[in-house]
Amino acid sequence: MVDVCNRGGMAEETRREPAGDVLEFAAETVDAADVRQNPPWQILIVDDDHEVHAITRVVLGEMTFEERPVRFLSAYTARQARSLLAENPGIAAILLDVVMETDDAGLKLVRHIREEMGNRQIRIILRTGQPGQAPERQVIAAYDINDYKAKSELTAQKLYTAAIAALRSYQHIATIERGRQGLERVMEAAVHLAGLRSRSQFLAGLVGRASALVTDATAALLCGVGEDGGVAILAEAGLPADPPAAALADIAAALNDGQVRWGVRHGVAVLRGRDVAPLALCLLGGPFAEGDRPLLELLCTKAAVGLDNLRLYERLNEAQVATVHALGKLAEYKDEVTGDHVKRLGRWATAIARELHARGDFAGELDDWFCDTIGLASVLHDVGKVGIPDAILRKPGRLDDAEMAVMRDHASIGGSILRDACGGDRRGYLSMGAEIAESHHEKFDGSGYPRGLAGDAIPLSGRIVAVADVFDALLHRRPYKKAWDIGEVLDLLRAESGSHFDPRVVDAFLAVLTREGAGV
After folding, report:
1. Tally of CA atoms within 13 A in the half-sphere of 275 that contains its CB
2. Contact (CB, 8 A) for 460 and 378
3. Of 23, 120, 230, 419, which one has the greatest count of Cβ atoms within 10 A?
4. Catalytic residues, which ones?
5. Residue 46 β-bridge partners
6. Is the pTM of this model over 0.85?
7. Average per-residue pLDDT in the chain?
8. What is the total count of domains within the chain?
9. Distance CA 147, CA 385 (A)
10. Same domain (yes/no): 457, 417
């Protein structure tokens, strides 16, 4: 039996640094295409005896596992090993000496790998020529290693067996870890997609998440059946100018029969919604591992549920929009000046909200949803006027105190109507409309109605609509007044800033008017 690690006195470990007369190894040359298709296993040899490196390469040099060759890296000190481990995160196994620059350099490296690097996947085989320096029982109990070999007993066959066992163990652990990470990415993608509220955002988000689903994916595309019956690309991420013909053929077939398909460089799975046409999600890149396939299918399942939920949301949103328009028409029927006024009001309110958002004001309240919603919600600001008698609502002159008290009830009436209609939904047109109806007559100094709110206690939507409402109402003729000159209206806004109006909202509105050339 040949002792491969105890020749020429090698059982006695040394601490020699590389010297000019030491056998050096030429860089291994490999074909780049072969590496991509069949990447080698990386094994790190850490030993201060150069003959150990040489013999290990001789014994294991032709070894293959799962049709993949082995590539060796060499370090002669624990310090060199740390650098190689940092530069090569895919190292599968390490053949590690104990005594190198210090008596426990190898054991300290084990601690570094497991605790500081947090690397639990790499398989560590401890090889020592001085078992008494690191007794097996103590080392196995105290250090997270996977095998312990005395160099005096390590024959060629035992070294080969230990290496194969380490690679197999690493492969299983890496597969489990890859699957775990893939599942995390699928769940993160599902959570991300669930928060999107437009179909275009959803589709773009889906292909973006799909392209990052597995390591070997380089691009993703989402397809449906086009008007001509062919494949229509709806969204893509990282897609080359000309998608592979084989992938397009499999996409067309999958859209037709709903079956998953995998090629050498692509995989296709199908999203099946309840009431929408099927879509095909294709990953390009590869070669893909067997464990990548269920991840793509799971992502499609989650995405299909997300699309169904998005469709339900869109229907609910459409119903709310229809309700807003119906209530707006009702208010317009009662007050003939409402129609054009609410259209202009919606445009100004949206512009103010976007200007405030761009400035970074009200960061805790203002978001894209707010800016997209306030314009239509502002249509409902005076819907409570349906409860006001026509004799008061359409009186051509000024209202007396009793009539004004009745008129002021429209704010509370509108809020009550809309809160009942929104059914508890806190992020919709009706809920914001209720907020606006109740608060757009409040004043920043607390002297408004119906509740006498002041400052930031007034909902932001109400503060925005208050400025836009007064601006437009004064600028246009009403049955009880003439239209004001633009200069007079702007003077009033500036004069009432800080008392009637929130100064930040006034400043933003003036900036909008300046940008639009409104005579500011």
Report:
1. 6
2. no
3. 419
4. 385
5. 75, 96
6. no
7. 86
8. 3
9. 83
10. yes
